[in-house]
Amino acid sequence: MNLLKINHLQKVFNENQPNQVEALKDISLNVEKGDFIAIMGESGAGKSTLLNIIATLEKATSGQIVLNGTDLMTLKEKKRAQFRREHLGFIFQQFNLLDTLTNKDNIFLPLVLSKVKYSEMEKRITPIAQQLGITKLLDRYPYEISGGQKQRIAVARALITNPELILADEPTGALDSSNSERLLRLFQTINQNGQTIMMVTHSALAASYSKKVIFIKDGIVFHELNHGQNSENQFLSQISQAALAIQEGDYNDLH
Amino acid sequence: MTYIKLATDGIWKNKKYYFPYIIATSILFASNYILFSILQNQSIKNSMFGSQLQGLIKLTLCLLISISVIFMIYVDHILSKSETRELGLYNILGFTNQNLKVVITIRLIANYLISAVIGLILGINFNRFSFMTLQRMLNIKEFKYSSVTGATQITLIMFFVIFLLLLFIRFSQLKKVNPLDLWKAASNQEKAIKAPVFSGILGVIILGSGYYLAVTTQPTMMAIAKFMMAVFLVVFGTYLVFSSFSILLLKLLQKNKHFYYQSRHLISVSGMLHRMKSNGISLASICLLCSAIVVALIGSVSMEVGKERIVKLWCPSDITLTTSRPLTPNQKEIITECSKTYHVQAHVAHQAEMTTPIWGNLKGSQFEQGNIQSAKYQLTFVSLADYNKAQHTNIKLNKNEALFYCPDLKAKPTALNIGGQHLKLQSIKSFNLFANYDHSIVQSAFIIVNNIDNFQKLTKEPFIYLTFLNTKGTTRENLRFASILQTKLGLSNTEYTSKYLTETQLIPIFGSFLFLGVIISIILLIITTMMIYYKQIAEGLEDRQNFQTMQQIGLSQRETSQTIHSQILMVFGFPILGAIINACFAFPAIRSILKLLSIYNFTMVLAVSSGVIVSMIVFYLLIYLLTTRIYRQIINQRIY
Predict the structure, then answer these.
(1) Nearest beta carbon to residue B263 from set A99, A112, A157
(2) Chain A, 141-170: which have a CB under 8 Å from a chain B CB?
(3) Contact of B200 with B207, CB cutoff 8 Å
(4) Which site among A92, B7, B220, B358 is 20 to 30 Å from B86 CA-CA?
């Protein structure tokens, strides 16, 4: 089932000004329900802009973007915040947990914004906390736990609203390799349970955990790789080669 | 050169913090300068009330200097916090502590020089203005304005010392941290705090006893000392209550799951709880500053408004003679002669024989004689004959019947037991002989009886004879006549009261009270504004990341501003509420002190107080609205 449909998406910053920048030229892609997609590209390729547009934090200049039947191009400014908290889950590189709240309250935050009852919140957190192994951390504060633990709290915060799509922006960027691996395995498990995930990353290793990798360069979708029946190591080397080829401009190998 | 560039660039980049700070410091500089130059003015020093006025100014200066020091340390702390990241960066890039010290020193010197120059310009310009205001208020023409170089030097040196102190504080902070800490200091990693139940209870007890003292203060000689004690307790109690009780309250709110888990409350309650330790103290300071402004204004404005009443009370006629014998024909001759010489038509309006005042307190209908320390009333007995003559009436009284006059006593007694005698009292509405001729600090009450001989025994003092003289003529003629007549009659100051002379003495005293009260209030207002401003900035910086995270997760712009408003309203509601409560409890004490100065008029003091409080609230709301905008701007500034 199709979840996200993007057609000829274009994003121009500072339009009609001397310093006009075309961040996205022409992006088209489809995300099916249950996908785990990694978006790769160099700095400035436009991947963060794409993520921000899907997250309704920015508006595209032209094109079509529909998430589960909602046209994000016409979504009113006032409805955007509500849309975000009801349909999307976010995981950030710097975790973005509130130091003033306990970990538990951090996880509750999107539900509180949606005015969910306290008893309902309690009901939802228990299975998620067990799955992520964070039950013991709930009453502590974010500044009292490690980076890997913080990111798991952030995952719980993203999951608790049962979002249609989880958007992760460099989720392993601030983690060491063992914590990164643990997080990515967690993503795989969540994905196997039916959760759709879109992840922006620099790291070929991180991307190799996904089902599909999309390469963006100069504002267009440059290349796609499917995990398919490949082993993880094979997939990783495919990704690395493709990334290198794109970086060096040696495109012929790819097609 | 690099240092100077780094230092000045930093100031320029942080101009949002530096600009108001420099303005506030300049104003403090100017105010100190003005007070110093008034203090050193020779013509004031040599004037009739020079030493009293100087004493008052010295007191104000002490207050002002301590405010300056506290305020500058507070703001500099916030400034240095906003700069930690920058300095940390320089440190990582290879600046040694020594290099950083140079940058900090240049910054502080720049601050000092800029505020001193602006302060001096402001000071010199406003010095003349405030001098003229003072002169007009005091109604003394002999004051001469002169620019004083001594004041410039003292103020410059004083602020230099304060800046040295700031430098010392900054250096000692620099010593404690390593570069990594410098990086982290900007992120807020305060430990969650436990509710300090004990100090909360202690605070309530101290505050309560302060309030109790204030409310029970009686208009006796002890009033001022008692009020000072109450002020001390309230200051201490306010700090304790704000820093502990607010945590208790927030913890309670947090425990109430239904309340706590609402988008508005979750953010504001947790945020406030998070920084309550430092927050409590600054909120208490804002509360006390507001209370001080209100009290200072109520006091000085009431005195100014009540001034004429005091003169009237102390000097019921143009010239009042209080002698131990009736006027002799010789004295009457002198008055007539003197009035001719000075072209002042003087005539005797009333004459009466009275007992000397009897000190004591009224308990029901029982009058308990007491001493001057504890007395609230002084009773004076007048004979019915003198009363009828003065009022042009023909009232007759039975034995044990008496007329009673005390305009500021609300519940008039109907009976009186004094010295074993029982009197049935009938209150009267007007009394031409009414006077507080001995300038007593307690309320005067008059009792008119057939025969005052019996009551004279209570005081064991001889009778006194009051003569009310009314005069016509210009103020100038009257002044000359009044002072010459006193010499010619050979009467002491206690026996001789001239309205014109009293006015020229009282107006300067009351004028300087008002002048200093207004100056103090203006300075406190500026400080309060600045404190709120910096608090908003500091909190905006702290909260920015939180709000932006929440916006990413799904807090709309509208919900953001609603949250901000409810949060700030809660935070800033506390101090003004506290200040109003403080003012309400201070009201009885202020009234008692004003009574000592013969201001008994309840409605007037109440009107002045309400006016002051309402204007304070309006002003506070204005500051709140203005600074909330700055807070919102900071929140919506993108960090990346």
Answers:
(1) A112
(2) 141, 143, 157
(3) no
(4) A92
Q: Is the pLDDT of residue B186 over 70?
A: no
Q: Which residues from A are below 8 Å from B276, CB to CB?
A: none
pLDDT digits 0-9 by tens, B224-249: 777 778 888 888 888 888 878 778 88
CB contact (8 A) between residue A81 and residue B551: yes
Nearest C-alpha in A relative to B548: A96
Cβ neighbours around B460 below 10 Å, total:
7
Please, which contacts does A112-120 make with residues 24 or more away whose CB atoms are closer than 8 Å? Answer: A112/B261, A112/B262, A112/B263, A112/B266, A113/A85, A113/B263, A113/B550, A113/B553, A113/B554, A113/B555, A113/B559, A114/A82, A114/A85, A114/A86, A114/A161, A114/B554, A115/B262, A115/B263, A118/B257, A118/B258, A118/B261
The Cα–Cα gap between A187 and A193 comes to 10
Q: Is the ipTM value over 0.90, yes or no?
A: no
In chain B, the residue whose alpha carbon lies closest to the alpha carbon of A83 is B554
For the stretch B55-86, pLDDT in tens is: 777 877 887 887 788 888 888 887 887 777 77
Which among A82, A108, A141 has the least Cβ separation from residue B556?
A82
- CB of A114 within 8 Å of a chain B CB? The answer is yes
Residues in chain B within 8 Å Cβ distance of A157: 553
Q: How far apart are CA B191 and CA B188, in angstroms?
A: 9
Give CA–CA dist B246/B268, Å, rounded. Answer: 13
Verify whether the Cβ–Cβ distance A112 to B552 is below 8 Å. Answer: no
pTM here is 0.72
Task: Report residue B626: phi and psi, to 5°.
Answer: -65, -45
Q: Decide the pairing of beta strands A165-169 and A196-201.
A: parallel
By the CB < 8 Å criterion, does A245 face chain B?
no
- A112–B188: do the CB atoms touch at under 8 Å? no
**Would you give the DSSP letter of residue B241?**
I
Query: Rounded CA gap, A199 and A213, in Å?
Result: 9
What b/e readout covers A77-100, taking b as 16+ CB neighbours within 10 angstroms? eeebbbbbbbbbbbbbbebbbbbb
Count Cβ neighbours within 10 Å for each residue of B501-521 and write b for 16 or more, e otherwise. Answer: bbbbebbbbbbbbbbbbbbbb
Could you list the pLDDT tens digit for every one of the 255 residues in chain A? 789 999 999 988 888 888 888 888 899 999 999 999 999 988 777 888 898 899 888 888 899 999 988 888 888 877 888 888 889 999 988 888 888 888 999 999 888 888 888 899 999 999 999 988 899 999 998 888 888 899 999 999 998 988 999 999 989 888 888 889 999 999 999 999 999 999 999 889 999 999 999 998 888 888 888 888 888 889 999 999 888 888 777 666 555
Angle subtended at Cα B624 by Cα B621 and Cα B628, rounded to the nearest 5 degrees = 145
- Give the residue from chain B lying closest to A107, CA to CA: B553
Q: Output the CA–CA distances (angstroms, integers) from residue B542 to A232, B151, B258, B554, in the order listed.
A: 43, 41, 26, 20
Q: Which residues of B touch A97 (CB under 8 A)?
A: 549
Nearest to A84 among B188, B274, B553 (CB): B553
> Which chain B residue is nearest to residue A96, measuring alpha carbons?
B549
Mean pLDDT, range B88-113, rounded to an integer: 84
